[in-house]
């Protein structure tokens, strides 16, 4: 399944918790999207998230249902490791 990086910008500081994450995961399951993990910016107003999904549209649909922004959705194709090796995702 393709891997996507999603950039999100929030109007307010994000306060993640189990209930929020669980709700997002339930919505994602409905459209075949799997949240792998996220990075949170120092100011807690941006996230950079990795997802497995059938398409960018599936990610945008899940985000809209969850009331989340999906400012940028980019499909990833390869991974570069610290030793310079290139591999498929």
Automatic annotation (TrEMBL):
**Domain of life the protein comes from:** Bacteria
Entries under Pfam families matching the protein = SCO4226-like
Q: Which InterPro entries match?
A: SCO4226, SCO4226-like
Name used for this protein in its record: DUF4242 domain-containing protein
Q: Which organism is it from?
A: Mycobacterium palustre
């Amino acid at each position: 399944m393709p891997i996507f990086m999603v950039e999100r910008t929030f109007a307010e500081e994000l306060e993640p918790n189990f209930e929020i994450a669980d709700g997002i995961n339930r919505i994602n399951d409905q459209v075949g999207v799997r949240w792998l993990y996220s990075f949170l910016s120092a100011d807690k107003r941006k996230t950079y998230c990795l997802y497995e999904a059938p398409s960018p549209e599936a990610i945008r649909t899940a985000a809209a249902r969850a009331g989340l922004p999906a400012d940028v959705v980019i499909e990833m194709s390869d991974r570069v490791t610290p030793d310079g090796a290139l591999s498929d995702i």
